[in-house]
Amino acid sequence: MSQNSGVRTQDSRLTTHDSLLTVRRLTVDYLTPRGPARAVDGISLTLAPGEVFGLAGESGCGKSTAAHAIMRLIKPPGRITSGEILFRGQDVLGMSERKLRDFRWRRVSIVFQSAMNALNPVLNIGTQITDAIRAHEKMSRGQAHDRAAELFELVGLAPDRLGSFAHQLSGGQRQRAVIAMALALNPELLILDEPTTALDVVVQRDILQQIKELKDRFGFSMLFITHDLSLLVEISDRMAIMYAGQIVEQAPAGLLFDRPLHPYTVGLMSSFPSIFGERKELEGIPGSPPDLVAPPRGCRFNPRCPHCDPVDAARYRAQTEVQPVLQEVEPDHWVACHLVQQRVQ
Amino acid sequence: MMEPIMSVNGLTKHFPAGRAGLFGERRRIHAVEDVSFELHRGRILALVGESGSGKSTIARMLARLYPATAGSAHFGGRDILRLHRRVELLRYRSRVQMVFQDPFASLNPTQTVAHHIERPLQIHGRTGGWRQTRERVHELLQTVGLTPPEDVARRLPHQLSGGQRQRVAFARALAVEPEVVLADEPISMLDVSIRMGILNLMARLRDERGLSYLYITHDLASARYLANDIMVLYAGQVMEMAPAEEVMREPLHPYTRLLLSAVPDPRRQTDQRVEARGEIPVVVNPKPGCRFANRCPLVFDTCRTTTPGLTEARPKHWVRCHLFNTPAG
To answer: Do B267 and A276 touch (CB under 8 A)?
Structure first.
């Protein structure tokens, strides 16, 4: 997969003309009885045409909310409070409902983790796909059916499965059908939100291979979201790690895996035992992610960070009082951490 | 090797699934078929399999939540599958405890943490005065790394994170000082950063208290990390059983190799393609033959007609595959 090194993610170096998707300082709040919870807190990212961008983080870090925001799918009590989303230079947040209809599915489509459970149980799969195609494209029922059969073959399902109902398919087959639907209108960007998390490992591997082949063939970009770092490193060109609503580290996938710098990323990497290599003791990360209604002051990771220590008084004050910003600490490698930035200077 | 603490022999579970037509033959789903293994003191055996492999059914039979169709499970000199009196079952459950996958569903939302740990103490008659009970609860919370215990004890489940709840589930299981813990996917619903904490807690309890575990998981990497031995299940049958490291380095069964090749791991040297597509079948009234035959890349004629037996292909390394043994029976 190609690496587009001309793309910069931070505002100062942003080049929007050659990017497919540009997100700038996106902020999303959810209203709760205790006050607003800032699920996404000022994230910025860009995707080049044909690129696979991986977004990783634990539950509640805001990765799914970010994806929903890009599709304008945030519903109350959630609200996009600020920021900018540009798709091929078009302002997504300013789109009318009519324009949104065209934007969703035709330009960008999304596959959810639970999508396979969202299929209508009383309609056969073929009807659901042809209805979806015909809602967006002027086509006869017969044409739409042919298109659906073609899509099924693409995702590795026998076209006669179009007559099946959701309960007659396994989880893997349902998720394939959902991917077929998402690709129905040849979108330029496919957002995959934990697409294989609920599946067994062999089925997961098979579906990922299929997605890669489809991507190589049709050239769409992907925003791939998962908590599974190993999987993300394998599939992404570039990736970002989110923690408590913010991007804390971003780099090409190989670089991030070989040389993670943010203590949270380092901790995540040591949270996955391997089936290869040496069997060694792993630590994980102590504590748990913060309450987003009242996140810790300063760096949000500071209560769990092994390097946040009052011994270095000046740095400790920064860590607990000043929010670190994402900085490029080496070419293409962005980190939001006082410690790393201090070390680099 | 010392006497096993639990020895399971020929454990089998068939679920009735109606008839094929009004006068057709009875259909039975063969969920677990002739599974045998031994648990040893201070050791962890991982049961690894995908959904439909029968791994949870095995744990549930051993916890006496499901009756077994056939087989035996000897523990403390008795076949625990044949305990029927309430007192006997109670005594068994004080020695063998179960921890479930979902810490959100396994705790009562209206009761404090302290209540959850006091209950087994009361049920199994381990309470002294209230002061002693309270101390015991605090001690257990401390053991599982929930501090300060006085504070945690007063909380309700919704005030705890998933990892903390799973620690409460372990404290509750440990309250009666069991010898064996049946842990059914105890980390799969937890956030990745806190999973290692739970695995390390389990390892510590094994090392410090000589606790034995049956660790049920779909995750080979965590099985390798935690377990001494690994048993790979497919469609209700044991396909391979060996010391954990040997399963990783020298997997013999084609299914084990498939599983290993499918695990995402950037440390992998080569980008292998998965060659055996598909999912675990539901086995209804099986005919003779290997259950993996129709997905196996190395299948040959015998596989479709004769059920392979489990044989010791190498010392302590058992495999159910015609490539490595002679046909059973």
So the answer is: yes
